[in-house]
Design goal:
The protein is 50% helix and 18% strand. The chain has nine helices and seven strands; from the N terminus they run E-H-E-H-E-H-E-E-H-H-E-H-E-H-H-H. Pfam families: CLP_protease.
Length: 244
Amino acid sequence: MRLDLFGVVGEDFTPTTVRAALPYSGDITVTINSGGGIAVDGSAIYNILSAHRGKVAVEIIGIAASAASLIAMAGHTITMLDGSILMIHEPHNFTYGDSDAHQKTVEQLEAHAVAYAKVYAKRAGISEAAARQVMKAETWFTPDEAVAAGFATAVVDRLAVPFARVDKKYEARMQAVHARAAASPRGLQKVADTKASWARVVAAMNKSMGFAPAVKPEEAKPKVELTGWAKIVEANNAFVRRHR
């Protein structure tokens, strides 16, 4: 499963919407393109993803900044695509009021900063004091810099991801099975019957449109008892003829 976290943390996606979108268990991929948002919502989403019953693969496809960078730390793997950015800084807030109100905001911000520093320090394998220095400097990381600093695990240069792939060994094995089936007497008869069935359909279509018949009447094979896939194809052909 893939979960896209795009936009503002706490507005475009919230702890509630993330929780609702997650399956009960199983591996997931979380793609992030967010400049941040509400600090406490970032903490909540980080903890929701960290507690998920399954591997969490985070992919930063544009920017993971501020609260979004904390969310990214929940990944068992954190992959940054070429051209993406990671930004880590101290939590911010606005206050309107007297000096007591501003002091209370300072206390709140410090509490958030200490909590964030623990997460960054755990991910990068550094001390909380070192993590606070990274935060206070408002550090911007390229993919390679983030990997070197321990805040990401890999850099990927990817144009597109295939939706599916074919196992070459399986494909070869199935081709061999089909070849053996077609080479058997019964298989050869089914192939011949199917070709004759489609020839009759083409002839009827050509006749209805005024074209020369693809198969002359005298060359058409007599109707035979159809089995297997040839029977299914003929049934489909009959349905098409009835509803033209």
